[in-house]
Specification:
By secondary structure, this protein is α/β, with parallel strands linked by helices. It is built from eleven helices and 14 strands. Strands 4-7-3-8-10-11-12 form a seven-stranded parallel sheet, with helices on both faces. A three-stranded antiparallel sheet has the order 2-14-13.
Length: 399
């Protein structure tokens, strides 16, 4: 978020790890995630072919060997925030893109990072700077960049994105973003966003945006035991969770990273959504969300909690649930759909029109109310008189 609303932050705590000596170490480092999401089973049904996932982030390195050929570079909405001649770092964005659509490298792609949807395409839309970039302060104070996320969402939709990944977090909502999200959903685009990493203090944590906008899939992070990670935010916007601790991913210039955060969990869920949209391209966003929620594993004892939502996403089960839901539709009838370009509501509410006035009932209930009021006043008068009498008696005894 920008001016007057707090700072946009990348919702992943990155821990740098030196590039492994053997690239296959990366794939072995991903094994726990592959098993938790049951990806090998899911890949028999879908690998995300034909789907475009927009990564609204700090930029994606299209030349990374695990992503090369899969990345289209879209518009840069924060151009000019860095000083002239300073290139984008593209750390966080590359990391997220690899978790979504990394295809590995080497013979049969056996080395490097494999994403949840390895055959999906990535649209890189730069809407934020890394914390370490010299223009980060400018980005968060200059009004030019106030609507970078909203602009990025609309650009991604217009460029044909099927899924939008938002591994970013801020404290307050933005009217332009709300309208952009409605626009995306009206076009059948599924938005997935990070719940945020400020959950370590205990209790319910304030909402984060854009995750907490209606219609967005808010994702929490799970630890190695598939329980809520200590840092993952808790609030009623959380829909599902995904692994978010010790997650292996790609970095720019051929590097690899290990990190934790709701960012990583969000990217994994976006990959699962890409698998669903590839298999069932016409499925509406509400049904995709339903498939994720009803198929989640490690469900809380009462079916839902504010830490992991409906449970941990399982790619194979989500695809199976989507297959059951694919023949249904959830759309507004003609004339009932709200224009996504305008805010909800039509300005100040005018006088309420009375359609029918029942004078008899008005008189009866009015009379009852009057009797009750008179009774209450009478009771107060009696209490007052009794109090005065007690005081007089007490004064006489003292005399």
């Amino acid at each position: 978020m920008l001016r007057g609303a707090g700072v946009v932050v990348l919702a992943g705590a990155l821990l740098f790890d030196a590039p492994p000596a053997v690239a296959d170490d990366v794939r072995r480092g991903q094994e726990s995630v592959i098993e938790a999401l049951d990806l090998r089973t899911a890949w028999r049904t879908s690998k995300g072919a034909g789907v475009v996932v927009a990564v609204l982030d700090s930029g994606v390195d299209p030349g990374h060997r695990d992503l090369v050929g899969s990345v289209t570079v879209g518009k840069d909405f924060v151009e000019g925030a860095n000083p002239p001649g300073v290139p984008p770092m593209r750390l966080h964005g590359t990391y997220m893109a690899s978790l979504i659509a990394g295809h590995g490298h080497g013979p049969d792609g056996r080395f490097g990072v494999i994403g949840v949807a390895p055959e999906a395409g990535v649209l890189s839309v730069r809407v934020i700077l890394e914390d370490e970039e010299p223009g980060f302060g400018t980005f968060n104070t200059d009004q030019r960049f106030e609507n970078s996320v909203a602009g990025g969402i609309r650009h991604a939709v217009d460029q044909g994105a099927d899924v939008i990944n938002l591994s970013i977090s801020k404290d307050l909502p933005n009217r332009q973003e709300r309208a952009a999200i409605r626009y995306a959903i009206s076009k059948g685009v599924v938005l997935v966003a990070a719940a945020g990493n400020q959950g370590a203090d205990g209790g319910t944590v304030p909402y984060s945006y854009p995750a907490s906008f209606t219609g967005v899939v808010s994702v929490g992070a799970a630890d190695a035991k598939l329980r809520r990670a200590s840092f993952s935010k808790r609030n009623a916007s959380v829909v599902v969770a995904a692994p978010g601790v010790d997650i292996m991913g790609a970095g720019p210039d051929g590097g690899y990273w290990v990190g934790k955060g709701t960012s990583q969990a969000t990217a994994l869920v976006s990959g699962v959504v890409a698998l669903i949209k590839a298999k069932y391209p016409g499925m509406s966003p509400p049904l995709v969300v339903q498939a994720l929620a009803e198929s989640a594993t490690d469900r809380p004892p009462h079916g839902y909690d504010i830490g992991t939502g409906f449970g941990v996403v399982n790619a194979a089960k989500a695809l199976a649930a989507a297959g059951r839901l694919a023949r249904h539709t959830v759309t507004a009838a003609a004339g009932q759909a709200h224009d996504p370009a305008t805010p909800l509501g039509g300005g100040p509410i005018g006088p309420v029109k009375v359609v029918h006035r029942d004078d008899e009932h008005v008189m009866v209930y009015g009379s009852i109310a009057a009797v009750l009021v008179a009774g209450a006043l009478g009771a107060l008068a009696v209490i007052f008189a009794l109090v005065r009498r007690v005081r007089r008696a007490h004064n006489c005894q003292d005399a």
